[in-house]
Each structure stands twice: as structure tokens, then as C-alpha cells.
Amino acid sequence: MKKILQVALDFVDLQRAIKLAEEAVAGGCDWLEAGTPLIKSEGLNIIRELRKRFPRIKIVADMKIADVGRLEVEIAAKSGANIVTVLGSSEDGTIKEAISAGKNYGAEIMVDLLGVSDIVKRAKEVEKLGANYIDVHIPIDEQMKGKISFDIIRKISKIVKIPIAIAGGINSENAAEAVKTGASIIIVGGAITKSQNAKLETQKIKKAISKKIKIKSEYFQRVTETDMRKILKIVSCANISDALHRGLPMKNVFPVVASVKMVGPAVTVKTSPGDWAKPVQAIDAANEGDVIVIDACGVPPAVWGELATNSAINKKISGVVIFGGIRDTEDIKKLKFPAFASLITPQAGEPKGFGEINIPINISGIKINPGDWIVGDDDGVMVIPKEHAVEFTNRAMDVLEKENRLRKEIKDGSSLAKVAELLKWEKK
Questions:
Q1: Spelled out in words, what is the top-level CATH class assigned to the domain 4-211?
Q2: At 100, phi and psi to the nearest 5?
Q3: Quick check: 150 and 358 in contact, CB under 8 A?
Q4: Comparing C-alpha atoms, which of 38, 36, 154 is closest to residue 86?
Q5: Contact (Cβ atoms closer than 8 angstroms) between residue 194 and residue 217
Q6: Confidence of residue 140 (pLDDT cuts 50, 70, 90)
Q7: Is the dihedral of CA 19, 50, 194, 425 positive or negative?
Q8: Residue 13 bridge partners (DSSP)
Q9: Of the candidates 356, 338, 328, 353, which has an alpha carbon nearest to the alpha carbon of residue 276?
Q10: In the chain, is it the N or the C terminus that has fewer CB atoms within a 10 Å radius of its CB?
């Protein structure tokens, strides 16, 4: 079959989904999918609306049926769905009933192998049951850990004859690779639904699929540990807080230098108020790109100044965070060195050498371990635990991408309250 671009409308509000669908269809998408959250939020009315507005486009109802296969396929098909999804992890009887109902009501069945332990084996089994399509689904939670691979498509394509769909983390850079490994249906969600220009993004991905070429994508990429810094330089502390489920910033720590960004793994310092020996020794202990985080008890005298800043610049340190005092701020501002502190004072203390470097510290209730990722901007300082750094870096990028789409809709004449449908989603 020809290569298909299926756009997954992963919204929770009908109007936003319809607006995006119009842009995607204008860009040349082949199929439209009512995503699972959208169906749960709006019900099968979203299928009726899509069918009414796009009579010539195939509509996929991503029901993820796990039981009652006959009934759920029937109501989806009667609402206008051409294709209905069933979970491959469900019982064979459920899949058979769904397939029978599909034949009766004129709908095809796509079996989603999400959560199946032996995907290759199950793919062959559901083909024998009579499924029309197989969908290999890279879960969003896995994408956020940077785990995107198409190797399983290559294995499945060697043993089944029915078309294979791939979903999860697809963009204009990797769509061609998915096709080359054997996928016939490329399911794209965020790369289009979070785009500021969905029509253009759809055209880009269609071109990538048809010509089997890689087209650069600024957003909609998921990174691994090796390239986290690139993404953390793009996202804001506000994005990171949202990704951390409204995570708390460091309290009572403020930017000394405006309009600079700080990103890097933490080198931690515990010292006494005014004792600047360990803070400056930490400069020598740090590597290029690190952030020095100093717990000086949040009181004066200063433990950092212009001379320490110049030393840090020579070592290519990314920035400093001080729960305590800083001085020489006029000079530090001229140097444009990212510095954050809880207070400014002209008074320095004496280098007595108390304290330790690279031990766990706690600043205003926020635990910081050596190697945790530190990000600072004009809004404050966020800490990302190193064991979850890849996941929450990707989630922060996801937040930014969604905001970009909201921003575009607001610029088109809407408002935040209307776009987010706040009244609808106020907690009852």
C-alpha cells in the first residue's frame, strides 16, 4: 500500500482538535485519528464531527478496546469511524469479536501492540485472527526517556503481510527511517499537533515520507543523556517546573545578572557563612560546563565575588548558585556571568576552610546531590534530579512545544481562557 500519514489529534477539547485537523488536511494528511484522550473527553461526538467536516478522509477511532469488542466497534463505526483500534494485549475473543463487528458495520480493525511483552509473536497471532493493520506504539512515557527505536518494525515486517503502523515520537527527521524499516502508516501526534504551523509541518513530514529523506526539526525531538544540555538551554525554568508537576524552585535565591541562562550538572559546596575557601576550591574541582551550588546558610558575609567569577570564567563554569552572600555585583554583571544568590553585601568573610565539596546539600527544602542538573534564568533556579534528568528534560520540551501551539492560537485572536477552556476544566 502507499505510505500513509495519519495525524493523531491528541487534544481534550473538540474545537482545538477541529482547528488542527483543518490545518493538517490542508497540509495533505491522509488519515485523521481521534486520539484516546480526545474520545474520553468529548465522546464519540468527535468522530461524528470529523466525519461531517472531512467526508473524504479516513477517520481512525483510537478506542484502545480491551473488552466488549463487538459493542465498542459498533458504536465507533456507526459514529463514522473507518478504522477502530483494539489492544493487542486483550483476549483473542475480544479481538475476534471486534473484527467480526468491523466486517458487519464497515470498519477495519487496527490492533495496537502497546504493552505487549512479545510484540513479534503477537503480531503474527493477530494477523491470523484477521486484523487489518498492526500498530506498534512507542509509549509517551518511554519517549520521554529518549527511547525511540524502529528495530521492532523491521522484525515484524519480515513475518506479517498486513500493513504496519508506527506511532510515538515521529517527526520530520525520523519519519523516513520508520518507512525504510517497513512501516506503511506513519502516525504523527505532537510534531504536528504542537506545531505553530500545522499545515507546514504536515507538508514537511509528507515530503520526508514520500521521498524517504530526513528533514531537520527544531522541536519535537527527544534526547538522551548525551545531548540533554542542548534542550535545557532552550526550555525555561517555568517549563521545567511544569514538567516536574509544578516543581518548586530554590527559595530565596535570585538572579544577580539579568537575561543570562545557566545549565549544568551540580558541583555542591557546604560552607560556613563568609568562609569562601571551599567555594573557590570548588572551581578547581569542577569541570567545564558545571554549575557550582554553594550552601552558606543563607546569611552574610559574602562567599563569592569578582575574582572568583573570573576564575570560574577561565574554567568555563556555567554559573554559580549561592545560598548566602555575593559581592562585586557590578563587575559580575559586566562579565555577564550567570550568578544567583540570596543576598548582596560588600562584606566578605575569611577563608577558614570549613565545609566540604561534592556532598548532598539542602537549600530551603530542596535537596541537591552532586551531578543533579541545575538550570537558572530570570525566573529563578530549578533542580532536576540526575536519575530522572533525561525524562524531565524531554517533558520540559514537551511543555514548551504545547505552549508554542497555545501561543499561536492566542495570536490568531483567541485568549488563554478560551483556548484552555478553563470553565470546562475547573475542578468540580
A1: alpha beta
A2: -65, -45
A3: no
A4: 36
A5: no
A6: low
A7: positive
A8: none
A9: 353
A10: C
Q: Determine the pLDDT at residue 273.
A: 96
Asked if 148 and 167 touch (Cβ cutoff 8 Å), the reply is no
Cβ 394 vs Cβ 224: under 8 Å: no
Q: Which fold has domain 226-390?
A: Glucose Oxidase; domain 1 (3.50.30)
- How do residues 325-380 score in pLDDT, each as one tens digit? 999 999 999 999 999 999 999 999 999 999 999 999 999 899 999 999 999 999 99
Length of the chain: 428
Q: What percent of the chain has pLDDT over 70?
A: 96
Average pLDDT, rounded, for the chain: 94
- For residue 309, how many C-alpha atoms fall within 13 Å in the half-sphere facing its CB? 23
pLDDT at 389 over 90: yes
Q: What is the mean pLDDT of residues 95-118?
A: 96
Comparing 4-211 with 226-390, is the CATH topology the same?
no
- Angle formed by the axes of helices 119-129 and 92-105, nearest 10°: 40
